[in-house]
TrEMBL record:
It comes from Streptomyces cinnabarinus. This is GNAT family N-acetyltransferase. InterPro entries: Acyl_CoA_acyltransferase, GNAT_dom. CDD domains: NAT_SF. Residues 1-183 form the N-acetyltransferase domain.
Length: 184
């Protein structure tokens, strides 16, 4: 298993919906949970809502026929500042402004455990963000997520923390921003 064995493909929301079961399997494997368990079911509900959002895109990585990783996200709509709601420290009003073409949310990036540490996540990240026309990308992680140092090494910068919503995994999330286009 090497990164050279991986092929990358791009998909819109309709195509992503067809791949939902495979996406759930990768998600469950990445987290070491049951594919039909609570965490995987919650992922599927979140994912299916996002497939139809403006600017949705999925980049998938396969080794042979097996899906080994994916990244997906969507564009924040004009005027929608919910993503930034309650962020502390509070940024400027200019930072919070959404035009419908300014910010792409990197919602999920998942790689099967056997493929982690082999460059698949970075390849997916760069393929997804390298194709975006927005000015910047954003993502949210749990405050103590092991991935935070990885994101920082890829050029992301932490801009603040937001409170979680009822039913979220975390009571707060750290928000990161990356200026686009991605350069390596």
């Amino acid at each position: 298993m090497t990164i050279e064995d991986v092929t990358v493909s791009r998909h819109d929301g309709e195509q992503a919906a067809v791949l939902a079961e495979e996406l759930c399997d990768v998600y469950a494997d990445a987290y070491g949970v049951e594919s039909g368990g609570e965490k995987a079911v919650a992922f599927r509900r979140r994912a299916e809502k996002q497939f139809m959002r403006p600017g949705f895109a999925l980049v998938a990585a396969r080794d042979g026929g097996q899906l080994v990783g994916f990244v997906f996200g969507y564009t924040l709509p004009a005027g929608d500042t919910h993503w930034w709601g309650g962020v502390q420290p509070e940024p400027s009003s200019e930072f919070l402004e959404e035009t419908g073409a300014r910010t792409w949310v990197l919602s999920e990036i998942e790689v099967r455990r056997a493929w982690q540490g082999k460059g698949v996540g970075r390849a997916l990240h760069d393929a997804a963000l390298g194709a975006r026309a927005e000015e910047r990308a954003t993502l949210a992680t749990g405050p103590d997520a092991a991935a935070q140092p990885v994101y920082e090494s890829w050029g992301w910068r932490r801009v603040g923390r937001i409170p979680g919503d009822e039913g979220d995994y975390y009571s707060a999330y750290d928000l990161f921003v990356l200026e686009l286009p991605v350069s390596r």
